[in-house]
Every structure is written in structure tokens, then in C-alpha cells.
Amino acid sequence: MDDIKLSGINWNLTEDSNFLATTATRLAQSLSADHVLIGELGTDGHTCSTLAYVVSGEPVDNIVYDLKDTPCADVYCGEVCLINGDVQQQYPKDALLVDLGVTSYTGVPLIDSEGKVVGILSALFANSLPLGSEENIRALFMMAAELIASHLEHIKKRQQLLLADTIIETIGEGIALCDRNRHIILTNPAFSRITGYSADELIGKHTSILRSDYHSEEFYEDIWHTSAREGRWSGEVWGVNKKGDLFPAWQTNNPIKSSQGSIEYYAILISDISERKAAEQKIRFQANYDPVTQLPNRHLLLSRLNDAIQMSKRHLKHCAVLFLDLDMFKTINDSLGHQAGDQLLQLVAKRLTEGLRESDTVARLGGDEFTIIVNDMESAQDAEVIADKLLQQLAQPFQLDHHPVTITGSIGIAAYPQDGDNPDKLLSYADQAMYNAKNRGKNCFSFFTATMQQQAERRLVLKHQLEEAIAAKDIGVAYQPIINIENGQIEKFEALARWQHQGKFISPVEFIPVAEEFGMIPRIGEIILEKSCELLRQLQRAGFTNLQFAINRSAKEFPRSGEAEPNWLDVLEDHQLPASAICFEVTESILAPDNLDQKRYFNKLKNAGAQIAIDDFGTGYSSLSYLRKFPVDILKIDRSFIAEFTNREDDLTLVSTIIAMARSLNLKVVAEGVEDQEQLNKLMELGCNYAQGFYFSKPIEAEQVLPYLQKWAEQLNVAVG
Q: Which residues of 249-283 are buried (b: 16+ CB within 10 A; e: fewer)?
């Protein structure tokens, strides 16, 4: 019904583009109303905002006015107000009625299809109401109000549809609508972006176009059955896009039912979760795999070892843990740099993996330690064959950029069931067996034994006892003289750690590795430096003013980036000793080119006047080229080269080469382990500067140093005289 006739008013709903303004105007003209307005409640809930406002038959700008104490407030409450002649008396606080000269008022609520008041229609008159019949006016307003409310509701729904359409078009989630037979009716741009198909390519197609082989047919059917039965389904789905690639999505299916309750459509919502899945995969990888070698880490290793034990238990088989530690890896890592070290670890990981079955596991626990789980063995002795094979594979040279490197390994073996059925225990036992292989000379394997467990328990006991000794500063120091070969003078002493527990001597060979393993070396070093400074000060007061003490320092004692520097120079200052009174001895692994922080502290010590000595020189790997880059003063030739150098040509060549090289670099040389006159004569012939060893003296206690010096001086004077 396009045209409606009511009391001479023509309501054209299709041709008028401004329905509200036209309706208000025609009502004003028909009723001779001075003011007609169509309004809605303001957002604050206390004002009325007009949607159309007509004054004297002409549309004017919309206004906002306060509802309090006005007849419009009553209309908003759902009342129909028809007041003829005394409106100002009934609403004395409504100043607008006075300002506009209004005496009569008509107002009706605009009620939508759900019975909710959505606005008001009102007319204001300067005189009494026309038409002579209030009932006619009421009927006219009620009819107009119904049309206006319907129009407003239509506009609101259209706006909601437009908003929904905009949301659907711009939302990041893919939306598709399909019929009850699962044929796609429409999609939004996000759906096309996720699947790779355009809307034209999808419309009319069955939803199976997006299915992948990742899921079974039963999985997809369950989606639709659950949607129909429970009114919703949501979960992770791996679909296939237009290119044929798998993509992960979070999918929600919602059935849309008719008024009779039958399913007419399905709304499908999908979200691309590729980034989330990638992040989850990265987190899982980081939690279970080593970032350098991509091998399983300790967490995953223990899980797989537990599985191996359970499988062996069910099938009455054996499994074994092989704990492999690379020999001399630290020297290579320090000499060639950490980047080369990482490259070597990667090559080792690849070679170990290639040498085993797919059912076995190779893991990296950290550093240069690898662990292998060997499954499905008839006996524990089968692990011997595998260990021997791995050692042979490791022995083949590795190529690190331009550096060919040969490395060996030490392997410890612990097996289920004879050594235990607990993953942590088997791993610990294999670790202990590996140390036994190291002690046997490296490049070999060793099975776990009860004796090894006793040794491990012994290390823990020593750890606790050593901690107590350090806390009480109960670490002793012995001093071994270093002789100037040219003039026979004692110019230096090397300070060596000594420890007695409950009157029993504990060898440094036993307690120093424990101290290194449990991080106690820096505290032991502090005690030795403190006690050496006290003794050196006493010797100076006794007249021996040119002595120098050599203090051994672990590379772990030198500061890394961001760490506080040791107070070694402060200790010297506290004892009123010059820095030149101390020579700090370190192993040649400290010469690695990437040890920049250590080099800075070396320079600080050197600039203060202290000397730097490289201990056990010749036992490291490719360190000679780095000597020029570090502030080194002294090279100490390892005792293993001195022991047979008078009888072995290769040792003699090495010793003479080191001495000649040191001379060219203006470095002094100390030969360790000198035990006879023949060795001393040969060293003198080669131009070695200093000698140290049992030929002169074993390490002596602190209280024996002064008498020893005095006696040596007396003998030297007699010999010279």
C-alpha cells in the first residue's frame, strides 16, 4: 500500500526521500499546528533530540531540549498526552512552553514491533486544538506514530544490516554461508584471502573443496553431525588452499534454523592460525631441542629414555645410554673461536646421527657432551660395538672452513636393566663411566661399574668438605722455587694449593677437579693470593726484595662482559706490594682470539706491573699465532716434554722450537719438571731462562721458604767463591 489517505493527508512512502520531515510538515499543515516534532531520547537519557522539526508549516534545524518536567517526558514513559488549553498550568516548570506561547499539546510515543518506545511524535499549539474532536486527533496521531515507528525501525534495521555487512567485509576472520546441503552461497574477502579462492570460485561449490588428507572422512562428518546435534562445532582444522598447500585454521560451524526448527543454512567462521601454530612449534622446539645442533635436549632425551626403558621391559630387551664427551674440544673452541666450535658440534651431531639407526636417539646435553640412546639390544654388550663404531667415525678429520681438525671422544656406557631402570640414574652412571674413559687416556669407552659410583659419592663428600675448608680459609699453600739457569739465583716461587682434611693429605689431582666442577676455584685462588702476599711481605722484610711469586689462575676467574673485575691488584696494594711482585699463570687456552674481556683484564694487570705466564705451554692447540696479541711475558714448557727431551728427538725439537720462538718474541721461558743435571745442561745449551723441578726442590711449606732461601744463598756464595 503505497498511498495512505487519512483526514486529507497524503502519505507517500516511496517517492519521498525525507519521510520524517515530510510527515511532520504535512501533520503541521493538516492540524494547523504551530510546532510539530519527531524526536528520540538523547544519549544522556535526559534530553530529546529531534529527528524532524517543523515550525509554522516549515522544516527548521533540529534541536535538543531538556525533558524534565515536560509533557514529552510522560510520552517517553508510554503515555498518550492530549492537553487542550491549559498545558502551561499542568506543566508550570516547562519554560519552553512559555517561551513558545504554547497552550495546547498533543504527544504520542513511537513504539517498535517489540513494544519498545523508540521516540515521540508531538504537536504544539498556540490556541486550542482544532478539528473539534480529540478522538480524531488521537486516531490521526496514533496512525502517524505507527508509520513513523515502522519507518524508524526500518532505518535502524537497514543501518544494522549495513553495519553487519561492513563488519563481514572488513573482519579478519573468514566467513562463509552455505545451504543445508553444504554448498557455499556467499563468502567475505577474508575467506578468500585465507583459502586462496575468489568468491566466484567458491560460490556453488561444496565445502569439501577445502578438505585435506590431514583429517579422515569421519572427522569431517563429525563436524557437521555435531553442529546439527549441539547447535555449534568449533575446533582446529587443517584445510587445503587453492595452491594445494595445507593451512591451519580455527573453524566454527553454526547452523541457522527456520521458524519451524529445521536447518536452512550453516554459517562457517575460520581464523588463520598459521602464525600461532608456528609460534607453538617454535616454543615446542626450544623446549625440546638444542638450538646449535637441532638435536634433542635433556628434556626430550629423558622422555625418550623413559620410553626406551618401558619398551625394553615389555619386550624383554636391553637398552643403553652412551655418554660421549669430545676430547680437547675446549682447546679447539678457545683457539679457533666459538663460531668454529659451533660448526664442529654441528658436524659431530650429523656424523653421530648418520651412524645410528632411526630408532636410536642422539641428543646434546650442552657444551661438548652428547648422549645416545640405543634401543632393542639382545645384551648390554651390543653397546660395545656401537661405541667402537662411533669412536672410529669421530676419528675421521673434520673440515672447519680452512682448518682441518681431528678430534676424539670418550664414551661412558650404562645399560638397562643391569645398571638401573631410572632415566636419571642411567644418565648419571653413563656420565661417571665417561670420566673413567677420560682417565684411561681418552678416545675409548668404559662401562659403568659400582666402583665408579663409589668415586662419584667420594666427589660429593669432597665437595662438602672442601666448601667447609674454603669457608675457614683452611687451604694451604706450598711453594716450589724457580731457578735462573744463568746465575743460579732463586728469583721466583710457584704457589701451589695444598689441602689436608682431618690430618689427611688430599692430593690436588683429586680436589682441584672437584673445585673446578663445583665452581670453587675462584675462592681457592683468593686464599692462595692472600697467603702468598703475606709470605712475600715477610720475605721482603727479611731482605729478599727481588722475589716474585707465580699464582695460578683459572680462565674461569677472569671477568666476562658485564661481570665485576677481581680485586687482585687491591690485595697487593693492601699488603704494600708492587704488582711486579706477582706473575699470574694461566693455561694457553686463554689465548683464544675471542677472549676479548680476558685480554682487557690482562692489559690492566700488565699496565699495573704484573707479569703474565702461559702454563703447560705446548699442550694446547694452535696457540702460537695468538701470542703476539696478548700481553704475555713468560712461557712455561710442560713437564711432559722435558721428561724425555734429552732422549727423544721429537721432544727436543719441540722444546728448542719453543725456546727459539720465545726469544724472537722477547719472552722468557721456564722449563717445568727438571729432574737431573743432564736436562739442566741441555736447557742451558738451548738458552732456556728458568728451570723448575724436583732437581732443585719439591714444593715446600710456607715456614720452610725463608730457611730454604737462606741456605741456597749460602751455598751459592760458596760455589761462586
A: bebbbebeeeeeeeeeebebbbbbbeeeeeeeeee
Amino acid at 285: F
pLDDT digits (tens, 9 = 90+) for 26-58: 888 888 889 999 999 887 888 899 999 999 989
Distance between CA atoms of 455 and 492, rounded to whole angstroms? 37
Domains in the chain, CATH or no CATH each: 3-166 (3.30.450.40), 171-277 (3.30.450.20), 289-448 (3.30.70.270), 461-720 (3.20.20.450)
* Cell digits of residue 455: 668415586
User: Is the model's pLDDT at 89 over the cut of 50?
Assistant: yes
- Does pLDDT of 77 surpass 60? yes
Contact 20, 148 (CB under 8 A): yes
DSSP 626: G
C-alpha atoms less than 13 angstroms from C-alpha of 610 in its C-beta half-sphere: 24
Distance (Å, whole) CA 341 – CA 328: 11
Strand 104-111 versus strand 668-672 pairing type: unpaired
Confidence of residue 256 (pLDDT cuts 50, 70, 90): confident
Pairing mode of beta strands 611-617, 582-587: parallel
pLDDT digits (tens, 9 = 90+) for 419-475: 888 999 999 999 989 988 888 888 888 888 876 667 777 888 899 999 999 999 999
By residue count, the chain amounts to 721
Question: Per residue, what are the HEC states of 147-177?
Answer: HHHHHHHHHHHHHHHHHHHHHHHHCCCEEEE
User: What is residue 542's three-state secondary structure?
Assistant: coil
C-alpha span between 13 and 155 (Å, rounded)? 13
Residue 263, strand partner residues: 257
Concatenated DSSP letters of 604-624? HHHHHT-EEEEEEETSSSS-G
Query: Is the pLDDT reported for residue 6 higher than 60?
Result: no
Q: Mean of the pLDDT values across residues 116-137?
A: 81
Q: Residue 691 corresponds to which cell in the numbers above?
A: 728451570
Q: Write the burial class of residue 679 (CB in 10 Å: 0-12 exposed, 13-18 middle, 19+ buried).
A: buried
Q: Who wins on pLDDT, 11 or 425?
A: 425
